[in-house]
Amino acid sequence: MLWDDENLYVAADMEEPDVRASMTERDSIVFRDNDFEVFLDPDGNGRDYFEVEVNALNTLFDLFLERTYRNGGPVHHEWNLAGLKTAVRIDGTLNNSGDRDRGWSVELALPWRGLTELAGMRTPPHSGDVWRMNFSRVQWPDSLSDGSPDILGKGIEENWVWSPQGEIDMHVLEHWGYVTFSSCNGRR
Fold first, then answer.
1. How far is CA 57 from the centre of its chain?
2. 174 in helix, strand or coil?
3. Pair type for strands 75-76 and 103-111
4. Does residue 101 contact residue 91 with C-beta atoms inside 8 Å?
5. DSSP output for 53-98
6. pLDDT for the residue numbered 151
């Protein structure tokens, strides 16, 4: 992660021997593919938080949640992070199980101006500000228990997270990590 006056930058590299993705429409339920997810609760109050998901096709699913699902939502699927930029790089061949891939990487530039209205905190943050965040990789199995190829989203997915949740639910915000924004020599 990096930050400046314009954006929060997040990047991830994921090893994956068979890079696959099928969702192509923005705000599809992208976690039905293997994906990378960013969660932001700027003021750490467990409400009014953001989620951005990206698959290997660079398909986005961004949403705003007033409360967690278990606390009745509501979830705003129609919300789009204005100015969001993403890029995906595949090291291998997409949707070709006949070869072995190395993986894929994703880069996101999350603009402060798109978060300002709903953040509950000043944006951009200042050095020393603390936000609650988490990151997740949803990884579906290559095959089902009977050995047949998995049709994406039909097996049981694995969720690899930055800050352990203690259960399969990324929306347990009290388990998210703390990120302290820090500047170097007065610069971001």
1. 14
2. helix
3. unpaired
4. yes
5. EEETT--EEEEEESS-GGGT--EETT---TT-EEEEEEES-TT-TT
6. 54
Beta partners for residue 9, in sequence order? 2, 109
Domains of the chain, each with CATH number or no CATH: 2-180 (2.60.40.1190)
Torsion of CA 60, 66, 67, 68, to 10 degrees: -10
Q: Which of 2-11, 78-87, 109-118, 136-145 has the lowest mean pLDDT?
A: 136-145
Query: What is the per-residue pLDDT across 13-67, written as a single tens digit (0 to 9) for each?
Result: 999 999 999 999 999 999 989 999 999 999 999 889 999 999 999 999 999 999 8
Q: Is residue 48 within 8 Å of 130, Cβ to Cβ?
A: no
pTM: 0.89
The two most distant CA atoms of the chain are separated, in Å, by 57
- Average of pLDDT values for 152-175? 78
- Residue appearing with tokens 């993986």: 103
